[in-house]
């Protein structure tokens, strides 16, 4: 992953949240300050690793000299019982940072695992699985990183890196054409324009405006297939809405280029990982 500078503040804030005003009263009372120990991050279920650098950073903030051996770096598919990384350092640091490290690692690995599952389910089709802005506040960069580790891609990171004209924009602007024309007047030459449509009639109107991407919202696989035929390569086709493990293959078979999935970042189950001491 990129330099720890990108998540240093977040990890520090999370540790401070856990330590509160008095610190780790349990560990400080039981464990001698000078005691060293070894421990390992071990997965209880198969999955894909993501967020290991964040977990390591949590331990090293409390013990900068912590020795770390990486067995399964981010992006690795692992079996149940596999060792992800092993640590040797101050026992207090290992115990105090344990929950912070695991909260990040389990959550991000869960996202990567769910993404990898959807990617495997849609293999053989050109559609790429992408995430959305439906992310945990403060964790967007990490959650989108986890999607990439699972083999998926990222939709826009924020409101500032692409134009996405949705139904409410269209309603306030008074129609699709005025919304697109106003957006085009303000967008820079490198800014792509995407428009959300709910019907094939709306799609026909959007195609005449020559936008970069069309978001086909809550359409059945049969309707998506018709939409792809209408688009005929003139812009990217993105499907969104009602995407599950059971429906994603049929959606991909429609020929769309992208399938955006909000629950990957806001509802993917955590991967069960523990910190084991010998």
- The total tally of domains equals 2
Give start-end ranges of low-pLDDT stretches: none
SSE series: HHEEHEEEHEHEEHHEHEHEHEHE
Q: Provide the residue-averaged pLDDT.
A: 97
What is the strand tally? 13
Secondary structure tally, helices: 11
Major β-sheet profile: 7 strands, parallel
Tell me the helix content: 40-55%
Please write the CATH class name of the largest domain: Alpha Beta
Strand order of the largest sheet: 7-6-12-11-10-9-8
- CATH-defined superfamily of the largest domain: Aldolase class I
- β-strand amount: 15-25%
CATH topology of the largest domain: TIM Barrel
Structural class based on helices, strands and sheet pairing: alpha/beta
**How far apart are the first and last residues' alpha carbons, in Å?**
29 Å
* Backbone shape: elongated
Please compute the radius of gyration using only Cα atoms: 23 Å
Protein name: Carboxylating nicotinate-nucleotide diphosphorylase
Q: How would you explain this protein's 3D organization?
A:
This is Carboxylating nicotinate-nucleotide diphosphorylase. It is a single chain. The protein has 278 residues and is an alpha/beta fold. It folds into two domains: 4-113 and 269-276, Aldehyde Oxidoreductase, domain 3; 119-266, TIM Barrel (Alpha-Beta Barrel). 42% of the residues lie in helices and 20% in strands. The protein is built from eleven helices and 13 strands. The chain has helices spanning 8-19, 25-30, 52-62, 91-121, 140-149, 167-173, 176-186, 200-207, 221-231, 248-253, 263-266; strands at 36-43, 47-48, 67-70, 77-78, 83-90, 128-131, 153-154, 163-165, 193-197, 213-217, 236-240, 258-260, 273-276. The protein has a seven-stranded parallel sheet with strand order 7-6-12-11-10-9-8. The chain has a four-stranded antiparallel sheet with strand order 3-5-1-13, covered by helices on one side. The protein has a two-stranded antiparallel sheet with strand order 2-4. Helix 5 links the parallel strand 6 (128-131) and strand 7. It is elongated. 40% of the residues are buried.
């Amino acid at each position: 992953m990129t330099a720890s500078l990108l998540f240093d503040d977040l990890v520090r804030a999370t540790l401070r949240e856990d330590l509160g005003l008095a610190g780790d009263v349990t560990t400080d009372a039981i464990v001698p300050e000078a005691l060293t120990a070894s421990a390992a991050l071990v997965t209880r279920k198969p999955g894909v690793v993501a967020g290991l650098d964040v977990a390591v950073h949590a331990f090293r903030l409390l013990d900068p000299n912590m020795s770390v051996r990486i067995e399964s770096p981010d992006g690795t598919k692992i079996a149940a019982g596999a060792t992800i990384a092993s640590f040797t350092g101050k026992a207090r640091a290992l115990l105090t940072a344990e929950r912070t490290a695991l909260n990040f690692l389990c959550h991000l690995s869960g996202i990567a695992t769910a993404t990898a599952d959807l990617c495997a389910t849609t293999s053989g089709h050109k559609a790429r699985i992408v995430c959305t802005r439906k992310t945990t506040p403060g964790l967007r960069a990490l959650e989108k990183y986890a999607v990439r580790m699972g083999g998926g891609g990222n939709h826009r990171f924020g409101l500032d890196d692409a134009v996405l004209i949705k139904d409410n924009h269209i309603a306030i602007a008074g129609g699709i054409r005025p919304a697109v024309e106003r957006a085009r007047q303000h967008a820079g030459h490198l800014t792509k324009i995407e428009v959300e449509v709910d019907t094939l009639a709306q799609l026909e109107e959007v195609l005449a405006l020559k936008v970069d991407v069309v978001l086909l919202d809550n359409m059945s696989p049969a309707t998506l297939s018709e939409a792809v035929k209408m688009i005929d390569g003139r812009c990217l086709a993105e499907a969104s809405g009602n995407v599950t493990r059971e429906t994603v293959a049929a959606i991909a078979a429609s020929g769309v280029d992208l399938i955006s999935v909000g629950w990957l970042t806001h509802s993917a189950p955590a991967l069960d990982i523990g910190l084991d001491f010998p």
